[in-house]
Specification:
The chain has 444 residues and is mainly alpha-helical. It contains 23 helices and four strands.
C-alpha cells in the first residue's frame, strides 16, 4: 500500500498541473461546442444550402444506405440541410402512425369540430349569396324563361330554396360525417403539410422541447469536463502526443451520446442506486402535450385544412359528387308547383341540366365557410383539447417516439460530428501545449 501511495505522490509531483487542468477545461468547451453545433445541424438551414456536383447523384445511388441519408446527397448536392426539416415528410408519417392515429380517427376529429355548428355557419355565410346564385344559374341555363317569370314567382323560387337551405346543409355535413373516414386521410394531409412547411416541424421540436435542448447544450460542458479528467490522467501518464486526438474522438462521440440519453432515456422512471432516473423530456409529458396539441390544432388538423383536403385533395371528386347528390332533391323541392310547368316548358333533360348546374355551383360555396380562418380557429380549440388529452395518456415510450423517431436513424451523423470535433479539439490542444504554436504555454 505504501508503495502505491509513494507512486501516486511521485506521479503527482511530476505533473504540470496547469497543463493537467487545461485538458478537462478544453474538453468541456469542446463538449459545449459539440452540442451547440449539433443542435444547429438538427434544425438549420430549413432548406438545402450547397451546390450540385455532376454525376454525384448516380454515385450516391451505389453508396451505403447510411451515407445516402446525408441531406442533399441523393439529389447530387454537396452541402447541408437541417436533419429535422430534411426529414419533415418522414416525421409527418411517423406522427400519424405512432401518435395521431392513436389520438383519434378522422370521425372523432370531425365530431370535435361540432358539425351542427359548421352547418349553421355555412347557412349564415351561404344565405346572402343564394338569390344571386339562383339568378346566375337560371340566366345561364334558360334566360328567357327566367325573365318571363313574374317577379313574385321568381322570388317564391328563391324563398323556397332558402327555406330548404338549412336542411340541405345539415344533410351535407351529416353525409360528410358518415363518410369522413373514406373522404379524409390524416396521413396524406399531415405528410403533405409537413413536406410543404418544414419550418413547422422545427417549430414542433423547439416549442415542445426547447428547455431540454438548452439543457443538452449546457450539459455538453459538464460531460466534456468530466470525461476530460480521465483523459488528462492518461495523457500526462503516457505523454504520447497522438493520445489526445484519439481520446478526443471518444469524448466527442460520448458527449453527444450522453446528451441524447439525458433527454430521451429511460422513457419509464427507474431507480439507479436509489436515485430516480428518467429522460428529461418525459418528466414534462403533460406540459409538452399541451404545446404539441396547440401546434397540431392550430396549423395541421384545422377545419380550414380539412375543408381544403375534402375539396381539393385526392378524394375531392368524391366529396363534390356527394354534395351535388345531396343538393338535387332540395332543388326539386324548391321548384315545388313550378316543377311540372318547368318540365313542360323546357323538357326533362333541360330541367335536369339546370338542377345539375345549380348543384355544382353550390358545391364550392357550401365548402367555402370551412376556409373561414376565424371560424376555423374557434373550432380548433376542440381539436386541441382532444389531442392534448390523448397525448397525455400516451405511454411514455410512444410519447418519446413522437419526437425521436424521425431523427433516430440520423443520430449517427451527430455522433460522427462529435467525434470529428473531439479529434480536432485534441489536435488543437496538442498544437497549443505540445507543439507550442503559442510560445510560453506549459507542456507535459
Amino acid at each position: 500500500m505504501d508503495a502505491v501511495l509513494d507512486g501516486l505522490a511521485d506521479w503527482a509531483h511530476h505533473v504540470n498541473w496547469i497543463y493537467f487542468v487545461s485538458i478537462p477545461i478544453f474538453t468541456g468547451v469542446i463538449g459545449w461546442l459539440i452540442n451547440w453545433s449539433g443542435l444547429w445541424m438538427l434544425f438549420k438551414p430549413i432548406n438545402f444550402h450547397g451546390f450540385r456536383v455532376p454525376g454525384l447523384r448516380e454515385i450516391a445511388g451505389i453508396m451505403p444506405r447510411k451515407v445516402q441519408e446525408i441531406p442533399g446527397l441523393m439529389e447530387g448536392g454537396v452541402g447541408w440541410q437541417g436533419i429535422v426539416p430534411a426529414r419533415a415528410a418522414k416525421m409527418g408519417s411517423i406522427a400519424v402512425d405512432k401518435v395521431i392515429a392513436k389520438l383519434g380517427t378522422p370521425a372523432e376529429f370531425y365530431a370535435q369540430l361540432e358539425p351542427d355548428q359548421i352547418a349553421e355557419h355555412i347557412v349564415n355565410v351561404f344565405r346572402p349569396d343564394l338569390p344571386q346564385l339562383v339568378h346566375d344559374v337560371m340566366m345561364r341555363e334558360h334566360p328567357r324563361l327566367w325573365r318571363d317569370l313574374p317577379k313574385p314567382v321568381r322570388q317564391a323560387v328563391i324563398d323556397r330554396v332558402q327555406a330548404q337551405l338549412p336542411g340541405v346543409v345539415k344533410t351535407i355535413t351529416d353525409e360528410i360525417g358518415v363518410h369522413i373516414n373514406q373522404l379524409l386521410d390524416p396521413k396524406i394531409m399531415v405528410i403533405d403539410h409537413f413536406r410543404k412547411n418544414p419550418e413547422l416541424v422545427v417549430r414542433v421540436f423547439k416549442d415542445v422541447g426547447q428547455r431540454e435542448l438548452n439543457l443538452m447544450v449546457a450539459f455538453g460542458f459538464i460531460f466534456g469536463f468530466l470525461l476530460g479528467i480521465p483523459v488528462a490522467i492518461i495523457d500526462v501518464t503516457f505523454e504520447i502526443w497522438w493520445l489526445l486526438p484519439i481520446l478526443g474522438v471518444f469524448v466527442g462521440w460520448t458527449t453527444n451520446l450522453l446528451g441524447m440519453w439525458l433527454i430521451f432515456d429511460p422513457p419509464e422512471e427507474k431507480r439507479i442506486l436509489g436515485i430516480k432516473v428518467q429522460g428529461l423530456f418525459l418528466r414534462r409529458q403533460d406540459e409538452c402535450a399541451e404545446v404539441y396539441a396547440r401546434i397540431i390544432a392550430d396549423d395541421v388538423i384545422t377545419l380550414e385544412r380539412i375543408g381544403d383536403f375534402l375539396m381539393d385533395g385526392p378524394r375531392g371528386d368524391r366529396t363534390r359528387q356527394m354534395i351535388a347528390t345531396a343538393m338535387r332533391p332540395a332543388i326539386d323541392k324548391a321548384a315545388g308547383p313550378l316543377r311540372g310547368a318547368v318540365n313542360v316548358a323546357m323538357g326533362g333533360r333541360r330541367y335536369d341540366s339546370i338542377k345539375d348546374s345549380f348543384a355544382m355551383e353550390a358545391v364550392g360555396r357550401t365548402i367555402t365557410p370551412f376556409r373561414d380562418a376565424d371560424f376555423s380557429k374557434q373550432q380548433s380549440e376542440k381539436i386541441r383539447v382532444l389531442i392534448a388529452r390523448r397525448t397525455k395518456e400516451l405511454p411514455p415510450k410512444d410519447f418519446v417516439e413522437m419526437m425521436r423517431s424521425a431523427i433516430k436513424e440520423d443520430e449517427w451523423m451527430l455522433y460522427l460530428h462529435g467525434a470529428v470535433m473531439g479529434a480536432a479539439g485534441g489536435f488543437l490542444h496538442v498544437g497549443l501545449f505540445v507543439w507550442h504554436w503559442i510560445p510560453g504555454l506549459p507542456g507535459h
